[in-house]
Design a protein that fits this description.
Layout lengths: L1 E28 L9 E11 L4 E6 L5 E7 L3 E14 L24 H8 L8 H4 L12 H7 L9 H15 L1 E2 L10 H7 L1 E2 L1 H14 L4 E8 L17 E8 L6 E5 L11 E7 L2 H4 L2 E7 L3 E11 L3 E4 L5
Parallel strand pairs: 6-7
Antiparallel strand pairs: 1-4, 1-5, 1-12, 1-13, 1-14, 2-5, 3-4, 8-9, 8-11, 9-10
Amino acid sequence: MSQSAARYHIVHETSYSYETPVSLSRQLLHLTPRDCSWQRCLAHQISVKPEVTAARERNDCFGNPVRELAIEFPHRSLCVRAESTIDVLPHLPALAGITHADRALSAGPSPTWETVREALAYGSRPVLLDASRFQFESPYVRVKHEFASYARPSFTPGRPVFDAVQALMRRIYDEFDFDPEATTVATPVLKVLAEKRGVCQDFAHLMLSCLRSQGLAARYVSGYLLTQPPPGQPRMVGADASHAWVSVFCPELDGGRWVDFDPTNNLLPDTQHITLAWGRDFADVSPLRGIILGGDAHELDVAVTVTPVVETRGEAAFLP
């Protein structure tokens, strides 16, 4: 059986202008979309100006494709352009035969969140190493009682895990304001909780902090949103930039299943979300991160464009 896939052309451009020459630059790029069961990268290229001295490709510890660059001569600017063509299949979980986004997780056969927490606890059998590394604190995610307290009204006793997670997502969407001026990448997640303002990265880190404080395994997903939605559908917050959402693990469902949640837009990601990479938090999957010698002050400009190409017919699941 085949399903209709959405095809996108994505351009992600990053430009640095330096006040003084940079004599040495080494950069780590998470700009190559990963292939997974619902997504296939059909074409991809990265161009860099000035021309790099050395480059290599590899996968990081989370399985994300990364590219390392070195520029070993003086330069006053750095421009990186990543261009991709991606097919994305519908992949909302069809629990109990329910596929509508608003109901996909509310009445499914997922176990209670307490059962999931116990299955992920240290000493449980089998040990779920791949998921358990997403249970703990990381550079931008904290496991603290403040986040457990905020999450508690959603995680009532005996509630199905995905129903509880969806309720938490909805509360973040309702109670927090999207404000690009309120935070920077260095803003502590406790401050985001206190001031209830931020951007998609902040809301993802907040939701991860709440989920991990409840003993659940949840990872940070970076990617893109459709810039111009189909006719009649609202334009989602976070388009025209890289986007972020979360993915939650349930070991008791289909041998283990990750399900995505977008707290910025209060929805379950499907064909309008393109996955780039995942990790513990933003620090693991920053699109462009590196070190330089020189440069002094700099100006940064980032532009992302996601354009539908054509709807295609694809297999129900792409090979990873």
